[in-house]
Amino acid sequence: MLTKYKILSHTADLRLEVYGKTLEELFMNAAEALARILYERSESTKFSVSPEAGHSLVEVIELRSPSISMLLVDFLNEILARSNINKMVYRVKNINILTSDIRPAGAGSPSAKDAQYVGYRMSKIESVNLGTLEVQKIGLEAEIIGAPVEKFDEDVKAVTYHEVNIKKEGDIWKTRLVFDI
């Protein structure tokens, strides 16, 4: 079974490595790690956020960023902000990673001839080799489900851009994250 994430030692902040079979799974696992750090660190503790469990607050997040790594940090900070504002812990119900402009690296700006192939409307990424493609704008659409909490177990101030670098190793996507606590 694939490990979803592991917490790594770090001198001043909370540092972790996150894994996923797809980019979407990587983002979901990172959000799960954030939820577990905020509330109930133990994976053996049951934490269920679903409409079936009586939690029906579904919120939508739509974000755009210049890079996939920045998008992950922006996504987690958006969840963190909503958690602090609403006193809730969130799980990702559904997520789609989107792009508006993918072309071979070094291809430069799209010409009028390329416009029919390089649209500026967001569309779902089916399979992307980020090593050979230049992604101009990337985004996501996600549905998150929240569960109210009385207090958080850990005070996460922010998810930082330090050390984040999403890459694919074999069949697994991975990145490191640093949480400012």
Short description:
InterPro entries: Archease (IPR002804), Archease_dom (IPR023572), Archease_dom_sf (IPR036820). The protein has 181 residues and is of the alpha+beta class.
Task: Describe this structure as you would to a colleague.
With 181 residues, the protein is α+β, with helices and mostly antiparallel strands. The protein has one domain (5-180): 3-Layer(bab) Sandwich (Archease, Possible Chaperone, Chain: A, domain 1), CATH 3.55.10.10. Helix content is 19%, strand content 36%. The protein is built from 2 helices and 11 strands; from the N terminus they run ββαβαββββββββ. Strands 1, 2, 9, 10 and 11 form a 5-stranded antiparallel β-sheet that branches. A 4-stranded antiparallel β-sheet has the order 3-8-4-6. A hairpin with a 5-residue loop joins strand 1 and strand 2. Helix 1 (23-38) packs parallel to helix 2 (68-86). It is globular, with a radius of gyration of 17 Å. The two termini are 30 Å apart.
General shape: globular
Q: What is the makeup of the main sheet?
A: 5 strands, antiparallel
Q: Do you know the CATH architecture?
A: 3-Layer(bab) Sandwich
Q: How many domains is the backbone divided into?
A: 1
Oligomer: single chain
Keywords: Calcium, Metal-binding, tRNA processing
Pfam families: Archease (PF01951)
InterPro entries: Archease, Archease_dom, Archease_dom_sf
Protein name: Archease domain-containing protein
